[in-house]
Amino acid sequence: MKETKDGTRTRRISESPSTGIDPLILDIDDFKGDFSFDSLFGNLVNELLPSYLEEEIDTSDGHGNDIVTNGHLRTPSDAVKLASGFSSPLFPEVDALLSLFKNSCTQLIDLRKQIDGKLYNLKKEVSTQDSKHRKTLSELEKGVDGLFDSFARLDSRISSVGQTAAKIGDHLQSADAQRETASQTIDLIKYLMEFNSSPGDLMELSPLFSDDSRVAEAASIAQKLRSFAEEDIGRQGMPTVVGNATASRGLEVAVANLQEYCNDLMQHRKEGSCLQWQNVAKILSQFNRGTSAMQHYVGLRPMFDVEVMNEDAKLVLGDSGSQPSPSNAARGLSSLYKEITDTVRKEAATITAVFPSPKDVMSILVQRVLEDRVPKLLEKLLVKPSLINPPPMEEGGLILYLRMLAVAYEKTQDLSRDLHSVGCGDLDVEGLMESLFLPHQDVYIEYEQASLRQLYKAKMEELRIESQQSSESTGTIGRSKGASIASSQQQISVAVVTEFVRWNEEATSRCTLFSSQPATLADNVRAVFTCLLDQVSLYITDGLERARDSLTEAASLRERFVLGTSVSRRVAAAAASAAEAAAAAGESSFKSFMVSVQRCGSSVAIVQQYFANSISRFLLPVDGAHAASCDEMATAMSSAEGAAYKGLQQCIETVMAEVERLLSAEQKATDYRSPDDSIVPDHRPTNACSRVVAYLSRVLESAFTALEGLNKQAFLTELGNRLHKGLLNHWQKFTFNPSGGLRLKRDITEYGEFVRSFNAPTVDEKFELLGIMANVFIVAPESLSSLFEGTPSIRKDAQRFIQLRDDYKSAKLASKLASLWGSST
Questions:
Q1: Tens digit of each residue's pLDDT (9 = 90 or more) over 99-115
Q2: Do you know which Pfam families this protein is assigned to (predicted)?
Q3: Do the beta carbons of residue 778 and residue 738 sit within 8 Å?
């Protein structure tokens, strides 16, 4: 088959005598490109099947056959049966198709063999080319390796040539140096011979030694010649081997002449002009690298004269014999250090113009300032006092030394910064400044603690004297009339605690000044804060104990005037008057203690706030320091808490003692058992109740103000319970009729309304139950059994109240209630 230009395929035809059908000739090109088996098969059979289809169509026209579609004939079942009787075959082109298919199969087999042969030849050719390619690559690799070897040999050769060149250069440099040294040696020998010619004769020297523009060079050569001559003379005195020549004999003349020449150069030191000092610096730099000139220049500065340094002490300390104050010392140091800084700044300009290495000279100058002038002043300013026998407060005490130390440290630190800004070379100005204060810093914290103790002791002595003077001026006249016992006692003062904190704050600021490391700072701050805790704890504890002494003294006054019943009226009146005075003293002591408690709480709050705002930030960076300080604070305040607790107990005893005295003195038997029970009952509280409530309202006003939080709740709850118990015991002494029961109920209501201000639910409940139990005096005997049906818990206390009814025996209530309540239980 061949493909035409329009894309259709044609076949090559050869005549076949047997079939008359053109055989199909297949070509390899038929299978290239987009090959389709269906198209190939169609091209094979299309020329045979259409003739068959036309014949079938002609034969089927009379029988109603179905339409022929795509070369296939579709007949109904009847037509199939009819066709079975025909003699001609149903598919006559089958032989031609079989022949065509066999011919095509033969051609396809031949084509496959051709393709296999071509593939074999192509594979053989590819293998041959691959072998040639591998051989070429191998040859190329060998060539590259050869190139690398050549490059390595070339690099090695270049390196060898470079090393040889370097060695040649070193030899040339060494030869040049030797030539230069030989030339210099010849010149030195020449100069040495000139100096060795005749003693004292310096007139025949080379022009070098007389040229003013080459003085430095002449000084350098003279120094070398002198060193060589002196060293040679020194070796001459040593034992030598017999036969050695003593060629160095006669160099003593050269040494003498060289020394004289050097002395002449050194005379320039006595001149003071800038240009002359510049020449001196150049000359002396050849002798001792300039150190001699630098030190000599610095030593001749007027700022280091003895008179000047004496004036420093007068400027800072004032007149001899007077006590300097830190403020005056601060002003004096500021003025003096400013003068020193200005002087050093002026010297810096001169030094820069004179010396070839001004930084080294400035280093020597600043070092001289910090090691000579400043220490001599600090030695007079900071006289370390004795810790065993410290100076008294009248002379300033230890605090004066500490304040002067802080002022001197701050001002000297400022001086070191100013000097560093002016310029001091490589000198460690800060470290040098710190070394000036090391003798003071090593024991600083001990002086700080001792100073705080001294201040506390002096303050306590001052307060004692003030209290004593106040007591003497007041006298004891008012005490007999019921004046406060605590008036002569020293009260806790918040202002004093604030002063303690101010001392501690000042000490803490010095700790931050002298302590650069966080751990050291935390230790010092904690030690100082511990002093504050000890001071505040001791002060407020002593104040609470003094307030307790007033309560104790008032209690002793009450016990002193307790009398029996068989006394005369006059004695009873005197005792009553004394009891009133003791009661007034107790009330005054109560109020005084409450004030002490209030001020104690305020003092503790001040310390806690100071710790949180000023101390904790120094302790937090160090592990455990903050927690340990909190524990110390709690421990220090525990003693004050103990004294406060004991005092509050005494306050309750004082209040209850006065309540019992008022009830005993004011409560009458007729208050609860009127002679005529038919009279309209009095709905007012009894006089005793009114007096007790008025007293409690008056005395507890200070407690409501002084106490706070849980302390207030605990105190009022305890007092309410004690009042409830005291009233129960008091009422057990009386007999009640119905009208008296109503007055009792009115008293209980009055007491209940007052204790409601305590905000103590348990106390309120107890007084409510008292109001219920008071009904036993009001109801009829037959109603008693149903009175406590809703509250069986108070039946036992109610039985004791029932026994106080005036008809308890006449109405035989004991037997009735016993039988009734006994059967119910």
A1: 888 888 888 898 888 88
A2: Sec10_HB, Sec10_N
A3: yes
Asked if CATH classification 1.20.58 holds for the domain at 670-824, the reply, yes or no, is yes
Return the exposure string of 739-754: e unless at least 16 CB atoms fall within 10 Å of the residue's CB, then b. Answer: bbbbbbbbbbbbbbeb
Report the first-to-last Cα separation within the chain, whole angstroms.
132
Joined together, the tokens standing for residue 120 give 């074999």
pLDDT per position as a tens digit, 716-761: 999 999 999 999 999 999 988 888 888 999 999 999 999 999 999 9
Interaxial angle between packed helices 813-824 and 795-802, expressed in degrees from 0 to 180 and rounded to the nearest 10: 170
Residue reference for tokens 């299309």: 46
**Residues forming a β-bridge with 3:** 9
Tokens of 141: 């690799």
Cβ pair 364, 351 in contact under 8 A? no
Give the least confident one: 149-158, 229-238, 399-408, 659-668. Answer: 229-238
Q: Across the chain, what does the average pLDDT equal?
A: 79
What is the b/e burial string over 344-375, where b = at least 16 CB atoms within 10 angstroms of the residue's CB? beebbeebeebbeebebbbbbbbbbbbeebbe
Q: What is the pLDDT of residues 249-302, one digit of tens each?
A: 457 777 777 666 666 655 554 444 454 555 555 555 555 545 666 777 787 788
Beta bridge mates, 688: none
Instruction: Give the residue-averaged pLDDT of 481-502.
Output: 73
Tell me, rounded to whole angstroms, the distance of Cα 732 from its chain centroid: 67
807-to-673, 681, 780, 787, 804 alpha-carbon distances in Å:
11, 18, 10, 17, 9
Q: Pick left, alpha or beta for residue 467 (phi over 0 → left; psi -120 to 50 → alpha; otherwise beta).
A: alpha
Measured at the CA of 261, the angle between CA 256 and CA 265, to 5 degrees, comes to 145
Taking residues 662-672, report their average pLDDT. Answer: 88
Whether 532 contacts 505, CB under 8 Å: no
Give the count of beta carbons closer than 10 Å to the beta carbon of residue 629. Answer: 21
Length of the chain: 825
Looking at the whole model, is its pTM more than 0.85?
no
pLDDT at 202: 59
Q: What is the DSSP letter of 773?
A: H
Could you give the 3-state DSSP secondary structure of residue 804?
Answer: coil
Helical H segments across 237-357, by residue range: 251-266, 274-288, 291-299, 306-317, 326-354
Q: What is the pLDDT of residue 44?
A: 72
pLDDT band at 602 (very low <50, low <70, confident <90, very high): very high
* 3-class SS string, 583-622: HHHHHHHHHHHHHHHHHHHHHHHHHHHHHHHHHHHHHCCC
| C-alpha distances out from residue 285 to 289, 297, 368, Å | 4, 13, 21
CA 221 to chain centre: 65
Q: How many Å apart are CA 404 and CA 325, to the nearest integer?
A: 8
**Residue 429 and residue 365 in contact, taking contact as beta carbons nearer than 8 Å:** no
Cα separation, 357 vs 437, in Å, equals 31
pLDDT of residue 653: 93
Confidence check: pLDDT of 498 > 90: yes
The answer to whether 637 touches 538, Cβ cutoff 8 Å, is no
Closest to 552 (Cα-Cα) out of 632, 653, 656: 653
Pick the closest to residue 590 from 664, 688, 665, 696 (CA basis).
696
User: Domain-by-domain residue ranges, the chain?
Assistant: 95-197, 301-468, 489-666, 670-824
